[in-house]
């Protein structure tokens, strides 16, 4: 999307969407919606809620953009949320990607707000200065068509979904899915997305091709499945099975054996 952004407004929207994706944000946390902010528990992030750090030191928002983009960490404080959590802080390290990076997106947002006259640290991150010099706020009704247009341009054959499947909440669910596929523990996903339960699992789509990537190889790593409460003698190493002594015709005799997955072959 960043490569398709040309105008200042498009670049601003792209940065908001990238930040929203990495932090699995609700759209009302980075955009204005049809519902007045005063009527909602969830509040739009302000510039003061974004902190950039490099080598453990906080970087002033007044520093040049290049310096802010070199930060290795971005910290966001969500003051008011839908689940009544207050002042919940989440951080993300730089991704290393020149385009899809939460640190770079945050740095661009900060410097954009700093360049507007009369805007202090309380400025909403969706604040935008038009070519006519008017201070406005980027809203969800403007962003959704833009997002859908980009999806249509890329095409369903590459993405696996069409523009009709997209809504702004897709960034929150998509963020959760991306974090899950990266192998991040459930508790970390909950902290990033600010879920108080495992409700985010509703966003995990089993249809995604990479959903089970690597599962089969991990399943055969462990050759033993001893139960913790199994009764076994200290000197017993093998399970016993019984076979009949066909030569003597006597009762079955125990034969010690051990089953291993490694080295097995299905050759005829």
Q: If you had to describe this structure to a student in words, what would you say it looks like?
A:
The protein has 268 residues and is an alpha+beta fold. The chain is built from eight helices and eight strands; from the N terminus they run αββαββαββαααααββ. The protein has helices at 8-22, 65-69, 102-114, 140-154, 156-159, 170-181, 186-193, 215-219; strands at 50-54, 57-59, 73-80, 86-93, 127-129, 135-137, 239-243, 253-257. The strands form three sheets. It has a four-stranded antiparallel beta sheet, with helices on one face. A two-stranded antiparallel sheet has the order 5-6. A two-stranded antiparallel sheet has the order 7-8. The longest helix is centred in the first third of the chain and has 15 residues, at 8-22. The chain starts with 7 loop residues before the first helix and ends in an 11-residue tail after the last strand. The mean pLDDT is 78.
Keywords summarizing the entry:
single chain, 268 residues, alpha+beta, four-stranded antiparallel β-sheet, two-stranded antiparallel sheet, 8 helices
Structural class: alpha+beta
Number of helices, counting only DSSP H or I runs of 4 residues or more: 8
Low-pLDDT runs: none
Topology as H/E string? HEEHEEHEEHHHHHEE
Q: What is the number of beta strands?
A: 8
> Helical content, roughly?
25-40%
State the shape: globular
Largest sheet report: 4 strands, antiparallel
Percent of sequence in beta strands = 5-15%
Q: Over all CA atoms, what is the radius of gyration?
A: 27 Å
Strand order of the largest sheet: 2-1-3-4
First-last Cα distance: 53 Å
Summed over residues and divided by their number, the pLDDT gives a mean of: 78
């Amino acid at each position: 999307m960043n490569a398709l952004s040309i105008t200042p407004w498009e670049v601003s929207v792209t940065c908001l969407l990238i930040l929203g994706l990495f932090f699995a944000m609700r759209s009302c946390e980075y955009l204005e919606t049809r519902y007045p902010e005063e009527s909602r528990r969830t509040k739009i992030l302000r510039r003061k809620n974004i902190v950039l750090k490099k080598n453990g030191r906080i970087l002033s928002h007044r520093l040049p953009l290049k310096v802010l983009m070199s930060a290795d960490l971005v910290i966001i404080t969500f003051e008011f949320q839908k689940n009544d959590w207050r002042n919940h802080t989440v951080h993300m390290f730089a991704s290393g990607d020149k385009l899809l990076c939460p640190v770079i997106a945050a740095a661009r947002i900060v410097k954009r707000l700093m360049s507007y006259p009369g805007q202090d640290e309380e400025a909403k991150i969706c604040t935008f200065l038009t070519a006519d010099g008017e201070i406005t706020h980027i809203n969800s009704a403007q962003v959704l068509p833009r997002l859908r247009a980009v999806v249509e341009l890329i095409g369903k054959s590459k993405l696996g979904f069409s523009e009709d499947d997209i809504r702004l909440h897709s960034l929150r669910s998509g963020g959760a899915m991306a974090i899950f596929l990266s192998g991040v523990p459930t508790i970390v996903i909950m902290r990033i997305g600010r879920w108080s339960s495992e409700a985010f699992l509703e966003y995990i789509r089993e249809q995604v091709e990479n959903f089970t990537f690597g599962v089969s190889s991990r399943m055969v790593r462990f050759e033993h499945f001893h139960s913790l409460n199994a009764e076994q003698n200290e000197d017993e190493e093998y399970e016993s099975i019984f076979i009949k002594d066909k030569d003597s015709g006597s009762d079955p005799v125990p034969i010690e054996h051990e089953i291993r997955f490694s080295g097995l072959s299905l050759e005829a």
